[in-house]
Amino acid sequence: MYNNKMRQFNISVIGLSGTEKDRGQVGVGKSCLCNRFMRPMADDYFIDHISVLSQSDFSGRIVNNDHFLYWGEVRKTTDEGVEYNFNIIEQTEFMDDSTFQAFKVGKMDPYLKRCTATKVFSAEKLMYICKNQLGIEKEYEQKVMPDGRLSIDGFVVVFDVSPVPNRSVEKQVEFVQNAIANILKNKKPLVLVTTKNDDAYELYVREAEKISQRKDYKSTVQLIETSAHESINIDLAFLMLAQMIDKVKNRVKIVSYQESAKSRKELLDIRSEAVTRLIRNQITDYHILWSQGSKMLSQYREWNEFLNIFGHEAGQKLFRRHMKKLRDDHLNKKLHQYLDKFALALEYLLPDISALNISDDDAWECARNYLQNHIEFDQYFYEFPQVSWTDFLDMDVPDDETRIPFDVLETNEAETVFRNYLNSVQQDKKKIGWKQQFKMLLEESGFVTPGKQLSEVRVLFMGRECFEALSEHDCQQIYDIHQDEIIEKSKQNFVELLLEHAQYFLQFKNVDIITQEDVRQITDVIQEDSRYKMLDRLDQERRVMLVQHLRFIHCPIRDHCPFFNNCVDNLIEEVLADKSATNHKMGGNVGGGGGGWKTTGNGSERTLNLLIVGSEHLASDLLNDIRICTGSKGEYIYENQTYYLNYRIANGDMEAFKAIDVYSSGLICVYSNQQSFETLKDNLERTLLCNLELEDKFENLPIVLVYQPQDLKENEVEYLRSEGMRLSEMLHCDFIDHTQNHQKYVYDILNIVILSLKLSEMKSYEPYPSSNHTDLRILVCIYCGDQYDIENIVQPLLAESTLVKANEHCIIVDVFIGDAKRRVEFILSSYHGTNQYRDELIHGYIYIYSAKRRSSLANLNILAAQNANIPLQLVAVTESGGVNAFFNNEICQFLITEGNALADRYKGSFMTFSADQYVKFAFYNPFLKIAWDNKYEVENLHVEESITLDSGEGTLENSVNQMPRPPPRHESYMLSNTLGTDGSGSENYEMLPTRSLNSLNEERDISLDEIYDDNNEKPKHLHQTDCTESDSCASSTERRVRQQNAYYKANKKAGTTTKKNKKKKVAIPVQTPRVPPFGAYVSPPEIPLHYQRMAAAAAAGEKKKADSGVVPEFMKSDKSPEYSMVPELTAVSIFGAENLPEYNMNSKCLKDFEKLEKRRIKEEQARLRKLQEKEKEQEKKLKRKLKQNAKGLTETTEAQFGKLMITSDKDEIPIFLIKCVEFIEKEGLDSEGIYRVPGSRAHVDMLFQRFEDDTNTIIDVLDIPVNAVATALKDFFSKRLPPLFSKDIIKELEEIAGSRGVGSSKLNVEVKTDRSCRLIALKSLLQKLPPINFAILKYIFQHFVHVSDNSKLNSMDSKNLAICWWPTLIPIDFTDMGHFEQLRPYLEDIVQTMIDQFPYLFCGKDAFVMV
User: What is the pTM of this model?
Assistant: First the structure.
C-alpha cells in the first residue's frame, strides 16, 4: 500500500494505428515509449513489439480480445522528491495475421474515438511485458489490471517525426489534431510527445511544433521531444503530464532534445570510459572467459552502472573487444618475430629468385611451393595442418621452439618480405608489357598490310616508348607473327569473296580447261573489291587460291573444300560419332527415357531401379515379396545374367510419377480394392493427360499393373480384374493377377521388366532399315565455314528420343506428322555434298545459312533454284541476341530479308533462330507437315524424272517401292478418353501432335484466290495449326463439330468417282478428325471457309453430278477435305494403258502395282461406306439440334439428353441444374476456388450416372465433394445442354461488348462508347431469348450472385466467375489464338456485367450502372 500523499495516475498513450496502409510500414513508437518508461533497464527494453497477431494470441489474457495493452504500474520520483504512481495503458489496433485487417470485437468504434475514451474495461487482463510473453504467460510475471477497469486521467499523444515509407505527414497531423480535439472536449490534460527524434526529419518536427502552438489550444498542449531507443526525455513526458493533472505550479523544466541528447552522450561517454579503464586494468590475459571476467568485474560500481544503462549485451561486447585486442597484440608481436626469422631463411633457401622462372602474378605461390619442397624445410619451418598458427599459439607452445609456422607465409606481411627479392623480375615484366603494346600498335595501324616489310613502316613507330625500348630482334619477331596473322585473315576474306560470286562461277562448273582469258575475266569482276586488293603484294598466292577455287567449283568434293578439316561433312561425322558413342556408353539405358538399367564395372552385372507405386501398405507388401524372391544382396538371375535391384516406394499421388527420371527401369503399380484402384487410375489420368511433357519419360518405360485383391466379394474381384485389364490395355502395359499366379507372380513382374528393357535395347541398336522403309527423306544442308557451332544447329534433331543413326550422315526419327507417327530420315550434308543425292528421292530440303555471311545466302540461292519443285525450308541463323541482331546489324537485316524473299519466290517456308538459342524438334514440325502433304506429288515427280532419264529396267519397280506404308502404331502410354476425364479439358489431347506457339506468329490468312488462281497453279502450302482446347472452350468445340455436318450433308455423294476420269490424281493424306470427349459423336474434320463457300455455290447441281458419276470440279483438288479421304491412285489413272510403251515399263512390276492399288482402293471404299453411314446418323442429330436451337429448349430435350433434362415444377428449369445449385449453395459457398478447382472425374461421371438412373437422387447422400458437383454443373452446360445463345445473338453480344470496333459495328458510336448505353442494349438482347433459355440463364446467374456475395470466403468474385464461365456460356468459334486473345477480355466483361447488374438485366429493377 502507498501512503496517502502519493498520487495515482492512469495514463493512456495514443498515436496513429491501423493497417500498414493507414500507419505506414512501421508504427509511431507507442510501445517503445511505454517500454522505456516502465522498464528503463537496457536488458528489459525490447525494440520489436506485437502488431500482427494470430486469433489465439488475440484471445489470450494479455490482449484479452481488446485493442489496448496494460503495461502495469510504476513509481517515479521528481527532482524535488515528489513521488507519483502510474498505470500505463497503450491504445492500439491489432491486425489478424491471416487477413491483415483489424480484429473485429463486437460493435467496435473507430480507433480515433476508442483511443480518446476516458474509461477502459477488461476483466482479468494481464500486464504486457514483451511479445515473447504471448502463449507462455505463466513463465513471466502475472499482474492483473486493477478491478478490470481504469479511468484515464491524462493522455500522451505520440507524433512520429521519423520518415516512414507509405505514411504521409498529413495523415499523422490529421489524426493528432482530431485526437487532441476529442481529448480537450473531454477536458482531460495531455502532452504531445514526438518520438524517434534520433532519426528525425526536420519538416515533421516543425509540423509537431505547429500543432502545439495552435491558438485554439491556448497553450494547453506541451511538446516534448523524446527518443525511446536513446532513453531521452522519456520520464520528463510522463512527469509533466502528472504535474498537469495534479495542477502543480512549479512544473519540471522542458528540455529540448538536443540538450538532453548532449547530456546523455556525456554521461554515456563517462560511464564507457570508466568501464573501459576498469577492464583494461583488471583483465590482462586474453584466455579469460566471459563468465570469469564478468564475475570479477561485478564487484565494481562502474561496471554495474554501465550494465544498467547499456545492458549485459553491451557489456559482453565491450569485454570481447578487449579480449580481441589483447590477443591481436600478442599475435602481432609473435608475427614480427617470425618475419624477422623468415627474412634470414630466404637468404639461405632462395639465394637466386630468378631460378624459379616465374612471373610476378604467381611468384609468391611458386616460392611457397619451392620452400615447402626444399630439402632443409624442417630446419626452418614446421606445419600443423589441423590448426592455423594463430590457433596454435593459444595452445601451450614449448619455449625452445624457434622455427616458423609455415602458414605464417600466407599473411600479407610475409609476402611483403618476399617481394623484396623480385626487383630483377620487375624489369622483365616491363619488357613483356612493351611487347604487348607493340603488338596492339601493329593491329591498330592501317598501314601494315600483308606482304610489307618492317623497314617500310618503321618510321610510323619511331618515338613510341614500346618500340624504342625493345631490341631490333624483339621488334622483328613480333612483326613477323603479326604478318602471319593478317595474311591468313586476308586469305580467308579472299575465299569469302570468291564464294559470294557463286552465281558467276557457276558457268565454270562443267569447264575442263581454264584459260588465261578466263582468269582475266574473273579478275575483272572482283578486282575492285578491297579483299582482292589486300593481297596485291602476294599475287602468286592469290592466283593459286583462285585456281583451287575453280577446281572446287568443277569438282565439289570434300577434299577440295576451301575449309579443309572444318568442312561440314567432316564435322557432321564427328558429331554423329560422338552421339553414337554416348548412346553406346550408356549401355542399356533405353527404358524410361534413357535410364533403363546401369551396367557395373565388370560389364556382366546390371542394376534395375524399380519404382513401386501403391496406396497404403500395398507397395510395402509387394516389396517384401520381391525381397523374399531375391538374394540377400537384392540380386536376381535371369538367363544367366545377374541383376541387382534398387527400390523406391511412393504412394499413388501425382508426385510419385513425377519422380520418374532417366535412371528408372520400371514402374510397378499395385491395387487391391475399389478405392486404391480409383486413386491409381485418377492420378494416372491426371499425370499423363495434364502433363504432356512426361510423355518422353513413359514412352519406353516398362509398366506392370499388379492386382492383389483383399477381403472382396467374388463379383467385386471379377469387376476389379476386368477394370485393371482394361486400364492395362489403355496403358499398353502388362497386367498380373496375384490370385491366378500366386506362387511366381514376383518372377513374372521382374521378367516382364527385363524383357521389355531388352527389347527396347535391341530396337535401339539393331541395324536400321534402309531409306525405302522410311516415310519421308529430308536433306538438311549446312554451308561450310558458317561461324556457328554445328552441334547446336543439329541439336533439335539429335535430341529426339526416337533418334537412331542410320549411317555416317543419316539419322532416322519417329515423329508425329498430322495424326500418326511417321518415320523420317534426315540426311545431313554440306552444300557441296548435296550433289551425291541429286538422283535420289528427297521429299524436302532444309537449307541452313548464316545471317551475317553473304556467301552463305548466295550459294543457297543456287541450290534452291535447282530444287524449286520440292518443299523448301530456309533457316537463317543469327548471332546471339535474336531480334536485336536483326535491327542492329544491316548485313543481318539484309540477308534475312533476302532469305525471306527467296523462300517466297520458291513457295517455301522461312524461319530464323539464334545461334545460342535452344530449339526443340517441334521447330521443324510445320515443314514436315508440308513435306508430308506434298509427298505423293514429289514421289510422282521423281518417278517421272527417273523414267525419263533412265530407260533401264527396274525403274518402275523402284518407284513402286517408294509408295507409303500404313503409319506405324504409336506405342505411347498416353491414355484414351475412355479412361475418363478430370474436368480440365485435357481429354482432348489424346494422340494429338503438339506444336510450338511460336509457329502461330508465322501464319497468315490465305484467301481463296491465293490458293486456286485462274491458271490452276500449284497451291501454296498451308500452315494448319493444331490448337488444343481447355475446359472453358470445350463446349464451343463440340458444337462447332456438330454444326459442320451441313457441308457434308450436301456433298456426301461426291466421294465416288468413275473409271472414265483419266485425269491423274494424287492422294494427299490429311489429319484425321480430333477425338471428341467421352459422350460426343465423331464428325468429319473442320471444313475451311473457302470450301464452304464453294459448297454453297455448287449445292444446286451436286446431286445430279453425283448420280451421273461426274465429280464436281472443285472437289477434284487433292486439297479437298472430302476428297482427300478417298485416295484414288490407280495404275490406270497414273499410267494410262496407252502410255505404257512410252515409258518402257516392266509388265510384271505393273501387275504387282495394280494389285496393290486395287486392294487399297477396296479398303478405302469400305472405309468410305462406314463414313457415309456415320454421316447419315449425324444428319439426323443435327436436324434435331437445329430445331431445338430455333425454338429454345423444347420438350424433346429429355429424349435427346436423357433424364438430366427433366424439368422441375418451377420455370421449367432442368432438375439436374436445380439440385446441383442447391447443393453448392448449401455446402460450397465457403469453398475456396469453387468452379476454379476441378473435381474428380470419377465423381463427376458417377453423379451423371446416378441422375440418369433416378432423377430423384439426393446429392447429399452420395458423399461427393462440392468441387466435383461444380465440375459436373459446368459439364452439364457445355456437353449436355444445348446452347443458350444462338449464333445471331452471339454476334450481337460481340458488338455490345465493343470487340468489333466502332467502325465495323452496326451499333451507333454512342452505344459503343457509353457503358450505360451498352448495358441497356444488353438487356434488350437478353429479352430476345426464348423464355426457357432466359429462365435457365436467370437461374444460373442468380446462383453466381450468391457465390460472389461470399467472395471473401471462396475467393470467387464476379471477375473470377466470369473468367471460369464465359467460354461455357458463350461458345464462339475461334479461328486462331489471335482471334481468341482479341475477344477474351470483352466476353469476360459481358459475363461479369451480367453478374454485377443481375437485378437490372433479369429482374427489371433499377440498374446501378458504374460508368
Answer: 0.38
